[in-house]
Design goal:
- This is CxC1-like cysteine cluster associated with KDZ transposases domain-containing protein.
- It comes from Paxillus involutus ATCC 200175.
- Pfam families: KDZ.
- This protein is an alpha/beta fold.
- Among the domains are: about 80 residues, no CATH class; about 190 residues, no CATH class; about 70 residues.
- The protein is about 50% helix and about 10% strand.
- The strands form three sheets. The protein has a five-stranded mixed β-sheet with strand order 7-6-3-8-9, sandwiched between helices.
- The protein is globular and about 85 Å long.
Length: about 525
């Protein structure tokens, strides 16, 4: 087939294309390790009587040839796809905005590839005003596509403590990562919206005293949202999940469709799960879909995202009307029960059997890359992740037919079981629906005034916080004693552990002070 050189001019090594293709196929199925592979080749060739001049020459030369071979293969695939797209009949200008973008249609043909995605709507749901941004209210009961999002803080990249300079040039390939400029712009927008709300020009509803209420645009009371926010670390932007002292890139956030196809990725550089990363991914997605496409959005804290959207007005209300928020199935049980009634995808019409956990499956598939990404350069890390996503795309594309067949059979089996259960119970379906509506209305009603119970609950919370603060202080003291006694075997892990313990101590102490300050003098005396 030919040879591929390690340099464009005067190469000292050329590698057979079949060998490069074999290594490329191998490295997307296990942890990429050019060093180990080249060392094995050198040992094998040495046994056959062949040796290389110099030290580590094969690794540097082979790595260069392999890297640019992968770049060439990716560019060739993109060029072929572009030529095919050009050969397709072009849509008329007035119809271009009625379909998802070519990028999305290529990312997931099942979600965005068809031109008939509106046919699933009932006739009354097809009633759209003259302006495509104004959606009739009765369309909110269905969604046209379902996406999910999550962050992962294990795919980190360490800082370069020694200041070593390596060869890490940008790679000329199409990337799935949202540009840094877009992320920075959304961070500024989020800060401006929150500042405008705090200054009084935005609409922020705050309950008075012990009153509970349902804010405008929301479906559950403020007390329920507060409970969900306190239950999840992802809802606290100040919570440090990765140390920025030791890591330049702290993780990834991904946006996937319901078929586990990656739509976009965002590179995280903060210690916590900041809200502007979510907004950047949503903004990128919104610009690629028609103005009347309705979206089901599943996230670990979907209730908090909708609350922030309604509260701070990050996007227009016309966009908010097209989004139906839900929580991922595995995280739903950590939410308050009224929140589960509204946001659980199994209890919400339109989400079907989508679980919103596609990101967890993606993180599992990327798990072999954790050790490699820690020591990679900035551009090399993005390149490896893009390569792996392309491999997962090819793998899922070849299994779409089997996936659909398996899911269809499972769906029919579950439907038969539900129909059999309804027949056995002997209840009218209309009566059951009416009872469910009544239950939702009752259990999402704002709580009445409960001054005494609330005070007792607050005192118990403060006492529990005091115990947690003491426990974190004891953990910090134990770590410091180990350090003084020179019993630390892994200094990097020690730094991460003590930084995490101190961050938790500071957060809990701050929460304890704020809760104490909120109590009156008479109540404080009861502590």
């Amino acid at each position: 087939m030919g040879l591929f050189p390690c340099a464009p001019v005067a190469p000292s090594l050329a590698v057979d294309l079949r060998v490069l293709q074999f290594v490329k196929t191998l490295f997307v199925r296990q942890t990429p390790n050019v060093t180990a592979w080249c060392e094995a080749v050198e040992v094998f060739l040495a046994g056959c009587g062949y040796t290389f001049a110099g030290k580590d020459n094969l690794r540097r030369q082979f790595n260069n040839a392999y890297h640019w071979y992968c770049v060439l293969v990716i560019q060739n695939d993109d060029h072929v796809s572009a030529m095919i797209s050009v050969a397709r009949p072009t849509a008329r200008p007035q119809e271009e905005h009625k379909q998802p973008s070519d990028y999305l249609r290529a990312r997931c043909p099942l979600c965005f590839g068809g031109n008939d995605w509106r046919q699933a709507r009932s006739p009354d749901q097809l009633c759209i005003e003259q302006s495509p941004c104004i959606i009739v209210a009765n369309m909110a009961s269905r969604v046209d596509c379902i996406i999910c999002m999550d962050a992962c803080f294990t795919k980190k990249r360490s800082k370069n403590p020694c200041g070593a300079e390596g060869d890490d040039p940008p790679n000329p390939i199409t990337s799935f990562f949202v540009p840094t400029e877009v992320v920075d712009k959304m961070e500024s927008l989020a800060e401006q919206c929150c500042t405008r709300g705090h200054n009084g020009t935005g609409r922020v509803v705050v309950p008075d005293g012990n009153d509970d209420l349902v804010e405008e645009g929301m479906h559950v009371p403020v007390s329920v949202l507060d409970g969900c926010g306190q239950s999840f670390i992802a809802a606290d932007e100040r919570w440090k999940k990765a140390s920025t002292q030791f890591f330049a890139d702290t993780g990834l956030m991904a946006l996937l469709c319901r078929h586990d196809r990656v739509l976009w990725l965002v590179n995280l550089t903060s210690a916590g799960e900041k809200q502007h990363y979510v907004l950047a991914l949503l903004k990128q997605f919104i610009t690629h879909i028609p103005n009347d496409m309705r979206v089901g959005f599943l996230y670990d804290i979907g209730c908090q995202i909708e609350h922030s959207w309604c509260k701070w007005k990050f996007f227009d209300d016309s966009i908010l009307l097209r989004f139906q928020f839900g929580v991922s199935v595995f995280h739903a049980y950590g939410h308050q029960w009224p929140c589960q009634i509204i946001y659980h995808p199994r209890k919400r019409e339109g989400f079907g059997l989508s679980d919103g956990e596609g990101c967890e499956r993606l993180w599992s598939a990327l798990k072999p890359l954790i050790s490699l990404l820690r020591v990679s350069g900035y551009h090399q890390r993005l390149f490896v992740l893009n390569m792996q996503v392309r491999h997962l795309d090819t793998k899922s594309l070849t299994g779409f037919a089997l996936w659909l067949s398996r899911r269809w059979a499972s769906c029919r089996a579950q439907k038969r079981g539900v129909d059999r259960g309804l027949r056995d119970c002997g209840c009218d379906v209309g009566q059951l629906r009416a009872q469910w509506v009544a239950q939702v209305e009752h259990q999402t009603r704002p709580s009445p005034r409960q001054s005494k119970n609330k005070v007792d609950k607050e005192i118990r919370m403060i006492l529990e916080l005091e115990q947690l603060v003491k426990a974190r202080a004891a953990t910090i003291s134990a770590l410091e004693i180990c350090f003084v006694a020179n019993r630390i075997t892994d200094f990097a892990c020690f730094e991460l552990d003590i930084a995490d313990a101190r961050a938790q101590y500071d957060k809990l102490s701050d929460m304890l002070l704020r809760r104490r300050a909120a109590l009156g003098v008479s109540v404080t005396a009861r502590l």
